[in-house]
Amino acid sequence: MARKRMPADVAAKVAPDLIDQAGARIDAERLTRRLAKALRRLTDADRNTLLPYAWGDLDYGCCIPGARRRGSGSGAAA
Asked: Count of CB atoms within 10 A of residue 47's CB?
């Protein structure tokens, strides 16, 4: 899109990859704002459950009080 607004000689000098990267950064910034807004709308309990699960590399059982982890209680020796 931005390439159409540039004079042809300028557009030819700009690496298309840089234009694509700039567009990707703009898209990522927009999505980040949308995600932040959605996270703010969550209750504290939902947010405190979601974030460790999504970003903390934890399984679901670690995030939910009283939930059993897979494999727990199997009796396997460590």
From this structure: 13
Please spell the DSSP secondary structure of 4-43, one letter per residue: HHS-HHHHHHS-HHHHHHHHHHHHHHHHHHHHHHHHHHS-
pTM score over 0.70: no
Categorize the per-residue pLDDT at 52 as very low, low, confident or very high, splitting at 50, 70 and 90: confident
Residue 12 tokens, joined: 């030819």
Cβ within 8 Å of residue 49, ≥6 positions away: 63, 64
Distance CA 70, CA 57 (A): 15
SS3 label, residue 44: helix
